[in-house]
Amino acid sequence: MSNLPPSLYLVACACPPVLHIHNMITASRERGWDVSLVLTPSAALWLEADVDRLAALTTHPVRSTYKLPHDPDVLPPADAMVVAPATFNTLNKWAAGISDTLALGLVTEAIGKRMPLVALPFLNTWQADHPAFEHNVRFLGAAGVRTRPTRRERLHTAWPERESRGPIPLAPRT
């Protein structure tokens, strides 16, 4: 048995809470996770000035693009993944099995690996009212993805109240 902490991939999308992703990294590390940060391409642009600081915080390179075939894997294998903040676009593409970015490729594969998965959506009420959203959240749920919060009314308010508590609804394996 390994003495290494369990590995969590934190997959983050471009929307306002991503500007506070360091809080989630810190909270996850305090809970015993070895955190690797994977960003969507848009989130990578939002956090471009902070990438070195975030890499130092996680102790791993921050990834946002696929590696080339001859490049080594620089992240430890994941034991669990949290997609947070999860945008309308990412949730719908994920449910459709689209893996046109590293972030989506990892989370679509994670379903097939039966890996523990959590999504913390951040979207507006109008997006939450789109019929694809509710359908795809249910579809992902049937595939094993836990979505928090689950009530549409709380989607746009969930992040501020959760940031201070460290929004990781998973516990590391012991």
Could you please describe the fold and organization of this structure?
With 174 residues, the protein is an alpha/beta fold. The protein has one domain (7-66, 76-163): Rossmann fold (3-Layer(aba) Sandwich), CATH 3.40.50. Helices cover 38% and strands 16% of the residues. The chain is built from 8 helices and 5 strands, in the order βαβααβααβααβα. The chain has a 5-stranded parallel beta sheet, with helices on both faces. Helix 1 links the parallel strand 1 and strand 2 (34-39). Helix 4 packs across helix 7 (131-142). The termini are close together. The relative contact order is 0.19.
Give a short summary of the structure:
The protein has 174 residues and is an alpha/beta fold.
Features of the shown structure:
174 residues; alpha/beta; Rossmann fold; five-stranded parallel β-sheet; 8 helices; 5 strands; 38% helix; 16% strand
Q: Given the C-alpha coordinates, what overall shape results?
A: globular
Strand percentage = 15-25%
Calculate the terminal CA-CA distance, rounded to whole Å. 11 Å
Question: What is the count of helical runs?
Answer: 8
CATH topology grouping: Rossmann fold
> What would you report as the Rg, rounded to the nearest angstrom?
15 Å
Low-confidence stretches: 151-169
Provide the residue-averaged pLDDT.
Answer: 88
Number of strands: 5
Biggest sheet, strands in spatial order?
A: 2-1-3-4-5
